[in-house]
Amino acid sequence: MRYVIAIAEAGSFEAAAERLHMTQPPLSRQIRDLERELGVQLFHRRPTRLTDAGKVFVESARQVLEEAERAVERTREAAGLSRGLVRVGYTVTAAFEEMPKLFAAMRERHPGIRVDAREAWDAELAAAASNGEVDVLLGRHLPIPAGFTTEVLRREDFVVVVGSGRPLATRTSVALRDLRGQTLRFFPRHFAPVYYDHVLAALSSTGETFDVWENPLPGLRNLTLNLGEEGFMFLPRSVGRQLPAGITCLTVTDELPPIELAISWARQTTPAVIALVHTARRLARREGWLRGRRPARA
């Protein structure tokens, strides 16, 4: 069931195999065997998409897995394992939506577990995890310390962000070629090197290149100062929806690699950490964070 759900959410067998940490051929065999056993086709191929029967199967499978997770949680609670402390380090881009929702979900499902949350830049969080100061990392393209396992919770598109007084702000979408000659406004690379490099790689994948101005006053809370008259920023779509007045988000029409939010935790860990990871997975399914991205527009 998890394999079918993973393919439905990832949109292809290849992407699902990568997410499941396996190669594509055995995944394809598993799906063919399941389809043969059921006597129905679950997926159309080329492009990969669910059949009507597959949609019914995925919906039912999600319900079964959620009930199984609830059974595990009730068992842990009965054994007194749903207690303790989890120290979560999360990045600036996760502060608007994902971390607050995860915190609320933990209070609802595991009131006996205390979540100690810490917001910081990526490099600081990776160092804290390596030093044993945090148990879980939540963020986009974070460095993963040795001994940690990681799992993608959300996959989404980038948007271009400009000041609302700019001519581009009257539009709803933009191609990167329309931004030629403008400067990408970004934070200094040493704050979040993996994220920084992923963003620049996504931009350059289209053949476009931009000068980068590294803001001495970084942070999403200062955007109205940074984007008032010139330049642009490149952010995850969900973050763009949370920004203050005076800022406009534009859909990017170019075909770009997605931006991913992941949760990472130490392989040798506590029941409280496992409970938080299970809650994060359930939250991602409920919110539809992995059910596909907006298609690019020509």
Automatic annotation (TrEMBL):
Belongs to the LysR transcriptional regulatory family. This is LysR family transcriptional regulator. It comes from Thermasporomyces composti. Gene3D superfamilies: Periplasmic binding protein-like II, Winged helix-like DNA-binding domain superfamily/Winged helix DNA-binding domain. One of its GO terms (molecular function) is DNA-binding transcription factor activity. InterPro entries: LysR_HTH_N, LysR_subst-bd, WH-like_DNA-bd_sf, WH_DNA-bd_sf. It holds the Pfam family HTH_1. The keyword Nucleotidyltransferase does not apply.
